[in-house]
Amino acid sequence: MVFYSALGIYTVAMTVANLLVAEFGPVVTPAIAFFLIGLDLVLRDWLQVRLKVWQMGSLIGFTGLLTYSLNPSADQIAIASATAFTAAAVLDWATFSYLKGTWLFRSIGSNVVGAAVDSVIFPTIAFGVLLPQIVIAQFAAKVLGGAIWAWLF
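User: That's the sequence. What structure does it adopt?
Assistant: Structure tokens below.
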């Protein structure tokens, strides 16, 4: 039951995050990064030990397709999301697997790497230009939000 709830929460969080960015643009990305992407980073770690790599990749791709189907004008956001989350997920997975120690230490450490990758790739693809202030704000919000979510887990 917890596993399926985590899958549902992950899917809803990613889809809502994408739709909010499509609707309101880069100005909302730091708040979304803190609340929803921080949650995503931690759920990704939690799901990582329970899913195969292809299943996680499918889940990430599914959220991009779901975003597009709910709001076709969000196509660039869905593409940016799927690309950024795939790259971040691979590096998050590799870092989480490499680190030793408690789950909390490994989750926070891998979230820093995932947040950095996602924070550069997503807004650059979504908005067509590198936005340094948005990248920095997103990175800080994702790391802080991820640390809080990891601690709560």
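The chain has a mean pLDDT of 86.
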